Amino acid sequence: MMELDPTKLPRHLAIIMDGNGRWAQQRMLPRIVGHQRGAETVQMVVDQASNLGIGHLTLFAFSSENWSRPKPEVRALMTLLKKYLRNELRRMLRNNIRFNVIGARDDLPPEINGIIDDALAQTATNSGMVLTLALSYGGRQEITRAAARIARQVAEGSLLPDQVNEELLAGALDTAGLPDPDLLIRTSGEMRISNFLLWQLAYTELYFTEINWPDFTIVELHRALADFQSRERRFGKTSAQIRLTQRS
Ligand code: IPE
Ligand code: IPE
Ligand code: MG
Fold it and tell me: 136: left (phi > 0), else alpha (psi -120 to 50), else beta?
């Protein structure tokens, strides 16, 4: 396996887990079998990221737009999510993982919200990796909710329009308190963001792989991390400036 520099790991890794349906269809299997296999990949990646010492892992599990899929697929995904969350709680407790959710939780079935509340409460004091699931999540919807929240504060008189700055807006998002992702991985060969973390991805390094999510392995994860470690993040500055600050 590729050698990784443990001092240069992403503080926050985000993943668009895509290609479950195609993985199944290529094997003449129902799409839901792809989602089931994808859930196994999730467990592997969560364990690996936590073992490597990555501080934050955020997984795009269900988008605002995914509600428009055929009803049986949506229902099957919710059943799978319920099963996954029940299983995962034990493992999160064992691995000192703190659970977190972003997205429009009001749209999720009450039963799932109950399990989520339980997992949030039981892992709240864990000090290891923060595992964030994006559920019923859309970046535009999140920014819109934040804008509405800020508008309400201005209308109530508790905030002045001039006090609205980047920090305040970031703090009104679902991701308040999380660092921006350093690396985004998307599987299945699609090269788009699909409404994921629009604000937070401003300076994230992007990594795309053709591999479908159920086939994603530890080796693939290491490959993505090694690629990340070879990049120079300039944040608008010149390469010379970056090399200068690295030396000091
Ligand atoms: C990703 O796999 C999982 C979800 C979006 C829920 P897809 O279901 O999008 O798989 P493809 O893209 O159709 O292959
Ligand atoms: C993005 O994948 C959402 C998740 C991985 C949960 P999609 O499969 O929904 O994205 P598009 O529709 O191909 O852009
Ligand atoms: Mg897809």
Answer: left
DSSP H helices in the chain: 20-25, 31-52, 71-94, 110-123, 139-156, 166-172, 218-229, 239-247
Q: What is the pTM of this model?
A: 0.97
Q: What backbone torsions phi and psi does residue 63 show, to the nearest 5 degrees?
A: -95, 160
214 lines ligand 1 (CB under 6 A): no
CATH of the domain at 149: 3.40.1180.10
Tokens (6 digits) for 243: 């090399």
Ligand nearest to the CA of 19: 1
Confirm whether 1 is domain-assigned: no
The model's pLDDT over 225-248, given as tens digits with 9 standing for 90+, comes to: 999 999 999 999 999 999 998 876
Closest CA to 224 of 61, 72, 48: 48
* 1 pLDDT tier (thresholds 50, 70, 90): low
Q: How far is CA 201 from CA 4, 83, 128, 220, 238, in A?
A: 23, 30, 23, 22, 20
Please give the residue range of the domain that contains residue 214.
6-247
Tens digit of each residue's pLDDT (9 = 90 or more) over 155-170: 999 999 999 999 999 9
Q: Is there an atom of ligand 1 within 6 Å of 95 CB?
A: no
Number of domains forming the structure of the chain: 1
Pocket mutation for ligand 1, best pick of 18, 33, 80, 135 (most atoms within 8 Å of C-beta): 18
Structural tokens at position 207: 């990594």
CA of 107 relative to ligand 1 center, distance in Å = 19
